Amino acid sequence: MPLPRSAAEDGPRWPEAAPAPAPAPASSPAPASSPAPEMALTSEMAPTSHKVLKSLLGAWALAACSPEETAAVEAHLTDCATCADEAVRLREAVALLHPEDNLDLDPRLRSRVLASCLGRRPARVPLPAWAAPYDAETARLDALLHDIGEAEWQAPVRLRWFDGERPVGRDTTVAAVIGHLTAVDGLVARTLGLPDPLGDPGDLGDNSTGSPTARTEALWAARSATPPAAVRAEWREQGRALIRGASFAEESAAELAVPYGPSALPVREAFLDRAFECWIHAEDIADAVDYPYHPPSPGHLHELVGLAARMLPSAIASRRRSGLAPPAHALAVAGAPGRSLHLEVEGSGGGHWRIALDSPAATVPPGTEVAHVALDAMEFCRLAAGHVHPEDAAAGQSGDREAILDALYATASLSRM
């Protein structure tokens, strides 16, 4: 680092530089060969001696030199091995003073700050635990949208899911994905008595209260010319309204049924479903615009995995009714024990679940297991999102092969557009 300058440096910066010549009288024409005043000033300002250039190495290492000084120092370093070695040592020292840290904030910072604040002063109107993953995932996706440029809203995005028999997909854009989230979140909003982005039931026919796919198509048709800022604002404001609605609602509201076309989920599980889809589509967008994105926090990821595990018995039964899976070995009446599969989800956010194979209403006490499947938490979530074919999932397996395939295919069938 450079030493403090002496008082002598309050005068001319480089003592060896010759004083500038007195300006010529205004009436005297400059000789044709004389350089322009600006060029003469620049050449006279640049230091030239070894001693002065060596004294500037510290400032150069800190990037504190003027452009003229920088050019002079770097030209000198190509000819002076001693100064070049010193410059390398100084640059290494500066690197120790200023480590190159990632400037992106930790995606979990918001959750940690809120948890710390709420631990000191609980919220007057607390957020239900089942709504916390949705709150976190919508905030993370909104941060991503804040960082991308307007042109990237038209970046191509491939939506993927599993239709029960095979993987399918739909090519769309970032803006259309946010519209899709808005349309499906509207099902939860309508159940809580909040405004639906598709309006009243009479405005758009059955699509206003129909399946997620039908609602998405209707909203895409109605918002085809909406600018990106308005697309983001509508989705974000609806998300905030859902969080407020969940916080102020009666406890019984958690059990209200949210229709998803032919099926339904209680509000508390619909919020987890919306958090899961928000995360999956945020990753789709992040891949499209080359943006770093991380999984949910372990606690929230465990909740999302648990939702998928709880939905598996009904998904297995639905596939059998549709002829997509072989019939159950034995029908179990409600409350009676039946065969089960041990689902082990490994890693952060994982856990253990017993999945009923013969009937969604059957009990699964210890000793009823006929198969065991083990997957990493991220692999399980990708399978549940329809991003991995059931037979390609990286899963450890033992026991009844038919039961294992039933569970894997049912997991992929949980996905939808």
UniProtKB/TrEMBL annotation:
Ranges of Pro residues composition bias in the record: 18-34
Protein name (record): Maleylpyruvate isomerase family mycothiol-dependent enzyme
Listed GO MF terms: isomerase activity
Pfam families: MDMPI_N, zf-HC2
Phylogenetic classification of the source organism: Bacteria, Bacillati, Actinomycetota, Actinomycetes, Kitasatosporales
Domain spans labelled Mycothiol-dependent maleylpyruvate isomerase metal-binding: 135-286
Region (Disordered): 1-43
Keyword tRNA-binding: no
Residue stretches making up the Putative zinc-finger domain: 55-84
